[in-house]
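Hello, quick one for you while I still have it in my head. My current little project is about how a certain protein chain folds up. You're getting the sequence in one-letter code plus the fold written as tokens. Would you mind checking whether the tokens look sensible for this chain? Here's the protein in full, and shout if anything looks odd to you:
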Amino acid sequence: MDARTRIGPALLLAVAILPSGCQAPHLLELAGGQLAILRARQPVARLQADPATPAALRDRLALAGELLDFAHAELGLPDNGSYRQYVDLGRDYPVWNVFAAPEFSLELRSWCFPVAGCTAYRGYFDEGAAQAYAQRLAGQGLDVFVGPAVAYSTLGFFRDPLLSNVVALPEAGLAGLLFHELAHQQLYVAGDTAFSESFATVVEREGVLRWLRARGDGEGLCRFRDGLERREAVWALITAARQQLAAVYASTAGDAERRAAKAAVFAQLRHDYDALRATWPGPPWFDGWLAGPLNNARLGALAAYDQHVAALQLVLAAEDGDLPAFYRRAERLGRLRAADRAGILAYLGAGPVPAPDAPCRAASADLQQQVP
């Protein structure tokens, strides 16, 4: 499963105030990885003017520039120089995230850092270090999941560059990622991963739809809408499984009985997903979401991106699609106490969701490349 991660604004400053103990090596790893990215940056304008730059790369950089202009002018997202530089990453992913949860709980463990606040994952630039840390947590009896991240954000503290793996994404994927990351620069609530990610996901989806309409790309719009419909169908299965697991974990049964019931829920989830994807034409993009062993950590990682999307879509609809007004409403939600915000979002999320545009039932083989 591809995810995105936030490496907060304390990334390098944290080195100056490193805490004692096991956290210091991790912060040093983050600082070293970020420094390597910063040192590799090249101005996009210089690359576009260089005749030695491959034509395909120049075209992708030009598309990214058009998307950034659209994000600033039409979506009202920040224009602070981010993504105007390029880094040849030399690997498929810049960061790997470690998620963990107790054996009988859906609540993800959180990690807190100086200034940056708390997050429901721990990110690493080095995959081996991420896997090693996950193994340590598993040895403590926790459910663990390590997921690669397509991109990450420093929340505007640095001018984040375009990474080579991001530039290679299909148009809708590139658009969605840029809009998502810029949305984090617009609003990010430290300590509330689900709210921050859901906000960015709503902005991402709305932005891609508006971009494709502005381009007159009817075929791309169909693929994107159908991808969203599939994503919602998968999310419904995951939500049902989480509700069943919550009931299992809250029961007074013994550990052995709860462990067996937990395994049965995950087996049913995989069966239901296999039945669902058999109804889809074209390669199923969502296999990566449920690949590998299913556990509380993996479901928690998925929930971080969609948990409050339905609620925030209602907020956007209440503003008649006015994105700046939506940003202001979301900012007010972000200033509430966490418990109050969660209660409001849960109430909104339980209500009817605005009817989406009619799906197009695209059968294109590249559908999986267009889904956010």
